[in-house]
Amino acid sequence: MRISWSVRPMAVLCFIVCLGCCSCLDEDDKVLTAEGTVQYVDVEGGCWRIVGYDGVNYEPVNLPDEFKKDGLAVRFSAKRREDLVSQCMVGQIVELLGIRRAS
After folding, report:
1. From CA 12, how far away is CA 29, in angstroms rounded?
2. Residue 79 bridge partners (DSSP)
3. How many CA atoms lie within 13 A of 74 on its CB side?
């Protein structure tokens, strides 16, 4: 079976677009690790954030209850969730992959 010349450029273009999408997904899925202090913010009914020692504020969507202590020093790993929005808007929205008290 012969492939016409008009189909080949389209197949190459689709392949290039797919490669570009894959590299974007890899970058969004990178795991970040940081340390900071848990902080309660009295806005919109109350929100929790982690004030990172790196100067970034993180708003975890899944902060466990045992870590909801204002002033608690923590070390955590997370991934950015750019697909979510927050009514609090107190930091970068992240999904925690692991969290522990900092020593």
Report:
1. 26
2. 31, 95
3. 26
Q: What is the DSSP letter of 44?
A: T
Report the number of distinct structural domains present in the chain: 1
CATH number at residue 78: 2.40.50.500
pLDDT digits (tens, 9 = 90+) for 9-65: 555 444 444 444 443 344 557 999 999 999 999 988 899 999 999 999 999 999 999
Question: What are φ and ψ of residue 3, in 5° steps?
Answer: -95, 130
Within 8 A by CB and 6+ apart from 55, the residues are none
pLDDT of residue 26: 44
Range of the domain at 88: 31-101
Q: Is-contact 60 92, C-beta < 8 A?
A: no
